[in-house]
Structures are given as C-alpha cells and as structure tokens.
Amino acid sequence: MKKIFVLDTNVLLQDPNAVFAFGENEVIIPSIVLEEMDSKKRLADEIGRNARYVSRLLDGFRAQGRLQDGVALENGGTIKVELNHRSFVKMQDVFGEITNDNRILAVALNYHTEEQEKPEPKDVVLVSKDTLVRIKADVLGLTAQDYMNDRIVSPTDMYTGCITLRVHPAVIDEFYSFRFLSVNSLQLSFKLRPHEFVILKDEMGTSKSALLKVNGDGRKLEPLYLSNEAVWGITARNAQQRMALELLLNDEIPLVTMSGKAGTGKTLLALAAGLYKIEDEHKYKKLLIARPVVPMGKDIGYLPGEKEEKLRPWMQPIYDNLEFLFDTKKPGDIEKVLAGLGSIQVEALTYIRGRSIPGQFIIIDEAQNLSRHEVKTIVSRVGEGSKIVLMGDPEQIDHPYLDASSNGLTYVVERFKDEAISGHIMLERGERSRLAQLAADLL
Q1: Distance in angstroms between the alpha carbons of the first and the last residue of the chain
Q2: Furthest C-alpha separation in the chain
Q3: Confidence band (pLDDT; 50, 70, 90) for 137?
Q4: CB-CB neighbours of 259 under 10 Å
Q5: How many CB atoms lie within 10 A of CB 279?
Q6: What confidence score (pLDDT) does residue 331 get?
Q7: How far apart are CA 355 and CA 38, in angstroms?
Q8: Strand pairing of 209-214 and 220-223?
C-alpha cells in the first residue's frame, strides 16, 4: 500500500533532493513550506542555497504538469503542492495559535482524516527534523518520523579508527620479533581498514600488549613510526593522542580526521604537528587554520573593524592554543609572532570557496558544524602537496539542521575510512584538566 508523506520545511532545507527519497509514494509539500522557502532563498549560506535549489527543482516540475494536481516522479512516486488542506478548524482546540508549524500539521491532519473515510485508507506520515513538530503530531494521533535519508551512520556505529584485539601471547611475541604481522595471520571475521590502529592484548590476562597500525594497503600490521618524543613541545599523554600524532606527521596521509570530546587535545595536537612540518621540516609552505563561523547560543550580530578584527572572536580558541605553543606572556604578543613568521594564516571558512590551496597544511576546526555540501567544497579545495586535517566533536553541534549522524565531519570519516590516503582517530580521554574531563562526562 502506498503512503502519503507530508514534508516539513526543514527536511528540504537539509536535503534539497529529499522529494526523491520516498520511492513510489505520494510526496506532499504544504503551501506554507513554499512561503518559508521564499523567506530563506536570499540567505548567503547553505540554507539559502538549498532553498534556491528546491525552488528551481519545483519550477522544473511545472513543465511536466500542474503541481497542485500532482506530478509524476521518475522513481514512480508523485509530488504535489497542497493548497486545499489548510483548514485549521480541527486543530484549534489543541493548538490555538496559527503558526507555520501548526499549518503544516493541519495539512497532515486533514489528509489523515480524509483517508480514514476511504475504504482502503493510505497511511499519512509527517516527516520533520523538528522534534517538537513530531511530538505535536503524536498528540494529534498522526504518524511522524525524522528524515533519516541524510544520516550517514548511527552514533553507536561510528568508525573510531582504533580497535582492541585479545590474542594469544605468542602473536604479540611474533610481532616484537619480526616488527610486523600479516593481517591474514590474525584470522579475523571482519576487515581492518587502512591506517587503522590495533591494540593487541594478551587473552591470558597478563600485561603483555602491543600498539600497531595497519598499513596503506590493509594487508600488514606495522609498529608506529613515532616514538613518544615531543612534537613542538607537545608530548602525547595517552594512546589515542599518540595515534593522532602518527597520522598528523605521516606525509603519505593527506587527509586526517579527528573526533572527540572537548579537552581531548584535537586542536593543540594538530597545531603542533602543523608547526613542526612547516617550521622544522619545511614540508609545507604555510599553515592555514580555519573554522566555520557558527555561534554557540545567541549571535552577537555584526562586529566593527577590519576583517581580522571581525574574525578574532570566532578564532579565539585557535589563538589560545597558539599562545600556549609559542609560550607568549603578554596580550598581543601572539600577533607579533605570527606577523614575524608569515607562514601561519588564520581564516574563516567563509573565504575559502573558489580557492585552490597547494603545498599547505590545512586545519579545519569545528568541522562538525559543516554540512555534507560544505565539507565537500572544502576538501575539494585541497591542491597538490597539501594535507588537510578535519576535527571536531559530533556531540557539540550548533548548526540548526545537523546532528551527530548527518554532519560533515561524520560524512568524511565514513566515506574515507576505506581509503589509503586517509586516517581517522577518535580521542576519548580528556587532558585539558580533571575538571574539564568531569564536565565532559557528567554534564
């Protein structure tokens, strides 16, 4: 039996191709959704881009027929812009205020009521990324669901970049004797990915263990290239940080992704590795550091001054880490250091579109606030001889239409986890302070 799916505005703003995701069913777009799209189309961000894309898509459907009567889609479904189900009478006793959300709910409710009067009623499903809209729909007796097609992976199945295996102690002895292990010799029932880290532990319960990394072709386990020496004054404080430095300093891995809670050292490790590669090894010409301009809490509005002055509040976390690495004592000293070096550029992602960036060590902080389209735009800017590091905490997202399963960082991690040119590690242990670790765990 075919179903009727009523789409909320936020579904189309998140995925402008969502109308094609419902198979051979009927897709309904309430007229208020068009009005909300119209209010968003002038925005310069991705929400505005998606609103314009949906507008062009619907305009293309007009050539095939009248949208208010329904237009057939290539996948066997139909799309319809609904004009005649806006009656709010049935909802006034429950939700008296005529808001845009309630008007969308009214469309779904009126469709549901009509279908129940038919001999073979179709299921009516309201699709929304707004939790409260789905709750309201449930109160009204409607079926409601989140839009799941944009989810890359469930939070519990996210790739961590590290696995612990319990093996016979003879396997660990073999590794220390020959300094490598064949992946086939482990006889695993699952596949190890390129540059995945493996911790071997004695299945007999002794303290014997080994830390290894899968090589680029996924066939061999090798020891870590780095010992635990300091990198630009920073020493790894736990196993995951050591793994992160291994990826960051490996010139054969041009794409590195790191995820983890606040205080796990993502930004500090990336900056230390970048400075080492540029100032000590001269592997890259410049260190480019960028982060999306997405506020936590209420936006503070327009800021005065030149571009550097406007960006400073957004980039302050980067400057905090640079001040620590350069051990500056007075306010303003870091600007003098950066001006003297000339090889470090702190930038907002707003200015990265259209650029080609060869021979640079690129750090993208707070990548969890990027959409799939935005992260594709950024990674596709990387030129020959460059290395890009994407990092963030998928649990701390300030973007209104993204979550831990649909953000750009998670998207890159999952799409590149089987590629030999990329490596990923999830940092778990906080090292900022005991208070910060407790806050991350308890709050």
Answers
A1: 46
A2: 79
A3: very high
A4: 27
A5: 14
A6: 74
A7: 30
A8: antiparallel
Q: Residue 71 is encoded by which pair of tokens?
A: 């237009």
Contact call for residues 40 and 33 (beta carbons, < 8 A): no
Cβ neighbour number for residue 227 with a 10 Å cutoff = 7
Could you tell me which CATH number the domain at 238-442 has?
3.40.50.300
The pLDDT assigned to 300 comes to: 40
CA distance 53 to 319: 37
Q: Residue 381: phi, psi to the nearest 5?
A: -80, -15
The fold adopted by the segment(s) 3-145 is Rossmann fold (3.40.50)
| Top-confidence residue, 46 or 145 | 145
SS (H, E, C) the chain: CCEEEEECHHHHHHCCCHHHCCCCCEEEEEHHHHHHHHHHCCCCCHHHHHHHHHHHHHHHHHCCCCCCCCEECCCCCEEEEECCCCCCHHHCCCCCCCCHHHHHHHHHHHHHHHHHCCCCCCEEEEECCCHHHHHHHHHCCCEEECCCCCCCCCHHHCCCCEEEEEECHHHHHHHHHHCCEEHHHHCCCCCCCCCCEEEEEECCCCCCEEEEEECCCCCEEEECCCCCCCECCECCCCHHHHHHHHHHCCCCCCEEEEEECCCCCHHHHHHHHHHHHHHHCCCCCEEEEEECCCCCCCCCCCCCCCHHHHHHHHHHHHHHHHHHHHCCCCCCHHHHHHHHHCCEEEEEHHHCCCCCECCEEEEECCHHHCCHHHHHHHHCCECCCCEEEEEECCCCCCCCCCCCCCCHHHHHHHHHCCCCCEEEEEECCCCCCHHHHHHHHHC
Mean pLDDT estimate for the chain: 87
Structure pTM? 0.80
Q: Are 427 and 241 in contact (CB under 8 A)?
A: yes
What would the pLDDT profile of 75-108 be if each residue is shown by its tens digit? 899 999 998 655 666 666 667 677 889 889 989 9
Q: Locate CATH 3.40.50.300 in the chain.
A: 238-442
The lowest-confidence range among 31-35, 217-221, 292-296, 353-357 is 292-296
**In whole angstroms, what is the distance from residue 410 CA to residue 241 CA?**
19
CATH 3.40.50.1010 residue ranges for the chain: 3-145
